[in-house]
Amino acid sequence: MINNEQFLEIIKQSFSTYLSVGTSRSTAKLKILHGSIAADLKEKLGNGFSIQSQGYEEGIEGSIDGRYYSKKTDITVKYNNKAVAGYAVKFVMRNYFQNSNNYFENMLGETANIRASGIPYFQIFIIFDKVPYYQKSGKFSRYDAISQHNLQKYIELSADNPKVFLHTPDKTLFTILSLKERAENDDFIDENDYANYYSSVIDTADLLTYSNKIDVNFKDSVILNDYKKFIEETCNIILDKIKTKKD
Prior knowledge:
Blueprint: H1 4-21, H2 28-45, E1 49-53, E2 62-65, E3 70-73, E4 75-79, E5 82-92, H3 96-115, E6 121-128, E7 130-134, E8 140-145, H4 152-158, E9 171-179, H5 191-200, E10 208-210, E11 222-224, H6 227-246
Parallel strand pairs: 5-6, 6-9, 9-11
Antiparallel strand pairs: 1-4, 2-3, 4-5, 7-8, 9-10
Helix pairs in contact: 1-2, 2-6
């Protein structure tokens, strides 16, 4: 299984790909991330299970028949060739504040659609504690600094009981990262300046770490900065669901 430090290295590789491609819209950065998680799930779940995602085996996303519509999922878990669980992965690279409500609302909607059909659904959300904000021209404007206030909706979500609220993921991994800065108060000119700098120091050992700047008291349904625990708990949920159906 992938441990927490190895997961951090996988995120770093995803970030490196994003820098080289030059756009957050590209799916290239997701292949190493999704593929690694998919392989980890296959190892953990074992015989009878198959996993579909970018970057793993055939490299094709699977889909799940939700209550209202069929949804392609970042990572689809199948048992005996039938979809039995899904994982969504979101890695925010830029302009978080202007999109934060959309991210959250989309997550609630897709989760409700899938969970209402009786299928477990999990979320992985990855973000820097300081997210660059760019103007439409690509010019660097500021950092969106993440705080407990910005995360309040996720704190509220973490207290929800997934057995009661179908819009709540069965389990969510919230990963907050610190990216070593070029120099204190040394802002970037534009997105190219940002990409060129971090590409040049991508192999720095302490470039990327789990953030300790934010003290967030998540409740049971959200796990903070512990990928290993998240995978273990979500796999147990999937296995228990399969066992219950067999019984």
